[in-house]
Design goal:
Layout lengths: L1 H19 L40 H9 L5 E6 L11 H4 L1 E8 L5 E7 L2 H10 L2 E5 L3 E4 L3 H5 L7 E4 L12 E3 L6 E3 L4
Antiparallel strand pairs: 1-2, 2-3, 3-5, 4-5, 4-6, 6-8, 7-8
Length: about 190
């Protein structure tokens, strides 16, 4: 008798689990989720073609610091209000930067963090100085050492390439930047 009760209870759990996977009530009972990653009927188990994810977003300096810290260390964060020596005009409306800061990774290399509120202005000025910045949706990161830049490979950031002589290897993403003559790529060098 006890075995029969356990079998009935087990069967009920299996039925409820199967019924729970048939639809969420919001997707029309098709079993496909509304997140763009469900499977289409007849797809043979392949995921539906979804929009590729856009560049990462980090609208505040705290968000940018967190993003950077997930890939490399970012210690000694310091807000920068004075222009940098190498790019003296990198402030305010000219560059579209609303806030700048620097921090250091474990190797002692600096990383520049920039909250950008006008990406077109930023890319225009970056082109003027040769590009090379790593950009997201609303922020940019810069480091002049390849070891630090390597930490950002596969991060979703795209390198702004404005030198027509720069070769981007096959298999890497290449998309038009917001400014003519520049390309955004996931080939970070």
């Amino acid at each position: 008798m006890r075995l029969r009760g356990m079998l009935v209870a087990s069967a009920a759990i299996v039925v409820m689990a199967a019924a729970g996977g048939c639809g969420d009530g919001e997707s029309g009972g098709s079993g496909a989720s509304n997140d763009g990653y469900g499977q289409s009927a007849g797809s043979g188990g392949r995921l539906m073609d979804a929009e590729p994810p856009g560049p990462p977003s980090a609208p505040t300096m705290a968000d940018i610091e967190t993003f950077v810290s997930r890939r490399t260390t970012c210690t000694g964060l310091e807000i920068r209000t004075e222009p940098d020596d190498d790019i003296p005009e990198e402030t305010g409306a000219t560059w579209g930067i609303k806030e700048r800061a620097t921090c250091f990774n474990v190797k002692g290399n600096y990383v520049r963090l920039m909250a950008v509120d006008d990406m077109r202005s930023f890319q225009t000025q970056a082109k003027r100085v040769g590009g090379g910045y790593l950009v997201g949706k609303d922020f940019a990161v810069d480091s002049h050492t390849s070891l630090t830049r390597d930490d950002f490979k596969d991060s979703g950031l795209l390198q702004l390439v404005c030198d027509p002589e720069t070769q981007i290897p096959s298999g890497y993403k290449k998309q038009k930047a917001l400014v003519e003559g520049c390309t955004l790529t996931d080939f970070i060098s």
